[in-house]
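Hi, here's the filled form for the chain we discussed.

Project: internal
Contact: R.S.
Residues: 212
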Amino acid sequence: MRSLSLLNSARQKLKNLLSNKILQLFILGAGWLFGLAAVGWGVWGIAVSSQPVDETFIAPPSLATVGKIQVDVGGAVKQPGIYSLEFDSRIAQALTSAQGLDDQADREFVQRQLNLAEKLKDGQKLYIPFLIERQIEEATEAQTLVSEDNSASGLINLNTASQKELESLPGIGEKRASNMIEARPYLTLEELLSKEIVSDLLFTEIRPLLKI
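And the returned structure, exactly as it came back:
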């Protein structure tokens, strides 16, 4: 019985010893793993902190990217100027912002050549011409056509010829050419006689060179 008791006591001591060893190994392993983790964290922190900081300036978004555009409205409108409009605005909205067309605006141009439903772009220039601009342009074109016609036919138009062209006629000087221009318009060449601009003899000489 005593031998059995001694044997059990020895087993219990061995069991306690093994338990203590396992616990010590566990504590040692955990400490070792914690140390490795701390070292790794420190190395990563140093690497991150050593990276250069990107200080590139980021420009603020333009008005166009946040729903606004700038449009310059000029010409024959009541209030020309630069207007801030919504991104999807049309030409009609730009004209409304400028308080509409001026009384002297070329409305035919607006009706025929301007698409009021066209979308505007940021920085766009919108110009509405005055009626007088078209009238001057048409008059210039007409004068050019008359001059070309006169050159082609070789005859001088009594109603449209310039002072210089009239002075090129035989017997017509600066004074008489000026009188011919002041007496316009002419319905017939014979009005040079009825208006007493030239004599019968001079009229006979220049008539073949003139036309109405």
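Let me know if anything looks off before we file it.
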